[in-house]
């Protein structure tokens, strides 16, 4: 399924709206940073790749995604689920394993 088809299923405000005191229209990119490496994710159940994150009027925080057809778009971070395991936060067992390995390496270096 194409990104344009997915976006068509979402309710979205079409007309431009000015936020009071901000002098910026809905969708204005105020800040954006590219990820050093793309991240695998799901958008409305479809696989996408995250390539940047940013601060966008009306949907901050936001993610820049690319779908399987190569279409790019900004979407709200709330609508994206990261599925790439190596970028997800560590669980307690993984943290303990890393801490134990670091402690073991440190004690070996001191001897």
Please describe what this structure looks like.
This protein has 111 residues and is of the alpha+beta class. It has one domain (3-84). It has helices at 3-9, 92-110; strands at 29-43, 46-56, 62-66, 72-76, 80-82. A five-stranded antiparallel beta sheet has the order 4-3-2-1-5, with no helix packed on it.
List keywords for this structure.
111 residues, elongated
Counted up, domains total 1
Mind summarizing the main beta sheet? 5 strands, antiparallel
Put simply, the count of helices is 2
Instruction: Report Rg.
Output: 19 Å
Task: Please count the beta strands (DSSP E, at least 2 residues each).
Answer: 5
Strand content: 35-45%
**Could you name the ranges where pLDDT drops below 50 across 5 or more consecutive residues?**
11-21
Distance between the termini: 59 Å
Per-chain topology:
Elements: H1 3-9, E1 29-43, E2 46-56, E3 62-66, E4 72-76, E5 80-82, H2 92-110
Antiparallel strand pairs: 1-2, 1-5, 2-3, 3-4
How is this structure best summarized?
The chain is α+β, with helices and mostly antiparallel strands and 111 residues long.
């Amino acid at each position: 399924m194409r990104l344009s088809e997915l976006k068509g299923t979402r309710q979205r405000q079409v007309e431009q709206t000015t936020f009071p005191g901000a002098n910026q229209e809905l969708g204005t990119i105020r800040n954006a940073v590219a990820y050093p490496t793309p991240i695998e994710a799901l958008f409305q159940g479809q696989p996408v790749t995250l390539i940047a994150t940013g601060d966008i009027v009306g949907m901050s925080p936001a993610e820049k995604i690319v779908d399987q057809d190569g279409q790019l778009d900004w979407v709200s971070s709330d609508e994206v689920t990261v599925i790439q395991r190596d970028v997800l936060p560590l669980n307690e067992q993984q943290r303990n394993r890393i801490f134990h390995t670091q402690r073991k390496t440190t004690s070996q270096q001191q001897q």
